[in-house]
UniProtKB/TrEMBL annotation:
GO molecular function, one term: glycosyltransferase activity
InterPro entries, per database record: Exostosin (IPR004263), Exostosin_GT47 (IPR040911)
Segments forming domain Exostosin GT47: 104-494
Protein name: Exostosin GT47 domain-containing protein
Organism this protein belongs to: Rhodotorula paludigena
Family: Belongs to the glycosyltransferase 47 family.
Amino acid sequence: MPAAAAEAQAPPPAALHSLVVSLRQSRSTWILLLALALAGALHARTTSETGDIRQRIPSIKSRGQEKEPDLRFRDLHTVFPPLEDLNDRDRLWPPNLDKPLCDLRIFVYDLPSDLRLPEKTVSQCRWSAYNSELLLHRTLTDPLSPRHSPSNHPHRSLYTEDPAEADFFLIPLFPACYLFDCWVKAGWTKTERCGVDDEYIQPVMRYIREAHPHWNASGGPDHLLFHPMDFIDGYYTEASRAAMNASTYLVTVGDVRPAPYGRYFRSFRDLVIPSSTHLLNSYYLNPRDYVDELGRPLVEPRGAADPHRQIAAQPAHSDIFVPSPDEPYDLSLHTLWRIGRRMLGWDPCNERDERSTLAIFRGGVGTETDGERYALGIRSLLFPSDGNTSSPPFSSSIHPGFSSLPGFDIAVWSENDDYARRLARSKFGLAPPGYTLDTTRLYEYLAFGVVPVFLGTGPTAGQVLPFARDVDWSSFTLSIPRERAHESPQILARVGEDEYERLRRNVWEVGRKVVLEEREGNAWKLLARDLCRMKRKGALTPGPEIANN
């Protein structure tokens, strides 16, 4: 270029000149900024594509390959209007559990004193899993104080003292409690029977048939009997079973597997009830002392669970819906400090914690004689195994156990308060079988807002759950089949936060209603729905749609 032309050329803009100088002097800084900009652009593009994919229907796998989603279905929610709510909600399932199916009445026999269980036997039984028969009987027959008894409590809405208006008759026969007391006294020799047939069952049933007309008038189908044991009436003689089995059994084990496992459960007649648990129904630990009204864990427990509170006696009832009342104020230093914290808004009972534990389990692994047969072999996965089948967990495989994984809180036993605190901070609760498919841990999980995970149990394994015709168990539980039990950690880790929150919320709003407690008496309300169906009471009148036009 000629020198004159070069001199005539305009100098570069000041901004460009400054940029060139900056690039020369701060080269590393500019490289870092460029890398950050590229990363941001890639992240924005990925997020945009992910959001777009979420609006589409899931891709379909065919012949091992994934097909591209059809974009024509991308905006269906803008094309088709949502369906309006039905005025007749009874056409949908699950139903409104607060709405009774029919007006039902239950008469409870009053046995002579010589046919009742001794008070020592009753007291002993309250510390067993068979306490469910005592608790359900008391909930129906005992008029609680107004504080513990809402207007729709079963004692007010279901119980009747007039047998003429009764739809069902409850026999206060408690053979499971009788045998539990017998086994305790016999050093847990379960072959002992202590005269349960000749001295208890048959005399009571003879009195029911001979002193009242109600059994003979119906032949027994409108009578209810408790059998909350693993093998239901399989513990008794043929004579005792013949005297009882025309009635409906209220059982804690519903099993439709082939014999011998489901041999004693009569799916056409028996009704499954929740099990009693030591934590809730014997020690009366109140979940609401550990979690708030939405089921979220508290930083520090309150009420009866407050470590600074001294309790003179155990509470009379387990209120899983209402937190324990505060103790009366005194002038102790702790009380004054607590009042001050409340006034300043520093009360830790108002502070919420997070559920930081992924999964929890408390329970044993059976005995050496049970071997790998116990719990269908599933519990052997939970604890470390050296492959020695003669020592716990009696597994022939060598593995570290789920208990070695981060986020898994697994042990054989915990002190009650410690266990309650851990439940309140756990997301999922593992529910493998024991000797049967039923496990009482299920109800502890529900009471504390923990999402139950059926491992080789649940409806897909042949287990009949309480009130399954009204309660949508799939809405607040997870089911992992036995053949995939070893994948449980990966399966739980893949549950997203939105899905977990949906399950947790349903546990708190629906699942808790299945737990045995006395203040609301929901177990009897749900039982009444099944009894209404048995009596064919409250059925809807068939409409024109019955023709299936």
